[in-house]
Design goal:
single chain; alpha/beta; six-stranded mixed sheet; four-stranded antiparallel sheet; disordered N terminus
Amino acid sequence: MAQDEIRPEAARQAREEAAERASIAVRPEFRSQTSATSKEKVFEMNGIEVLYSGVSAVKGISMDVGHNEVTALIGPSGCGKSTLLRCLNRMNDLIPNAEVQGELLYHGEDLYGPNVDPVQVRKLIGMVFQKPNPFPKSIYDNIAFGPRILGRKDGMDETVEKALRGAALWEEVKDRLKSSPLALSGGQQQRLCIARTLATEPEVMLLDEPTASLDPASSQKVEELVYELRRQITVVIVTHNMQQAARASDRTAFMLSGELVEVGATRGLFTAPKDPRTEAYITGRFG
């Protein structure tokens, strides 16, 4: 039987198995407290298109991101997830021949308006990349770097401790703050980068496949941290790991070939997708 001829009953069973593998029921006590308590839109995307040298990489994306939610972007490699993520803090501005079209509102304000300073945008909307990139400074100075650039001088010890605690790293490094972060494990380095971003007190954190280069144990710690961070800030995460998206996010958006196929509450998208392409992806029929 061809893949596109799978019977409804078999498709239903495949969805249920995918949902079970994804462990969607993790932390129900937290999930019940999520975005239902706040309907505020942090981002509103209306017809976002990104072109590189005139070629569309992202096409007509329209979706919202809610306050204090974790929103996961999933889809196969090359579908435009990271490109869309970079729109949210204007990182695409740094790519030659990149052009962003459409409307992107941040708390109702045009993020690409003529009077908006991209540097100020990136102070409010921090980003953590796939590969940990600690600075060649001490652990302490890595965390203090951002606040110092912003002109903060007082209470630096408290700022560093707060950021490290926020990244669930304080107890592991508090006795070696003057040491090089290069001696830390990959997972610790990634949490250090998250702490470094937290130190500037962003309103939003963007995570571009933050566990792609980590072992399962380190990935779990970062994943748990991401889920906890939504108590403080809004998080948007790009991930190839559907189980991770199901465990750590409140809403999930599935992208394919630069287009948004479906977006909705994570539980609903994984257990009862509306689009057959979403069902095919989460059940492993492609991607």
